[in-house]
Design a protein that fits this description.
By secondary structure, the protein is mainly alpha-helical. The chain has one domain (5-34). The chain is built from 2 helices and no strands. Helix 1 runs antiparallel to helix 2 (25-36). The protein is elongated, with a radius of gyration of 11 Å. The model has no long low-confidence stretch (mean pLDDT 82).
Length: 37
């Protein structure tokens, strides 16, 4: 279970990071802050 969740989280993080990178630096910072919080 844990492994599956970790894998899903990793894939989600990569997708969000990639999308933010394409969208723009500003969005990336906002997304990073949201993830941190």
């Amino acid at each position: 279970m844990t492994f599956s969740t970790e894998t899903l989280l990793g894939a989600f993080t990569i997708g969000v990071r990639f999308a933010n990178n394409v969208h723009g630096g500003m969005q990336f910072v906002d997304g990073a802050r949201m993830i941190v919080c």
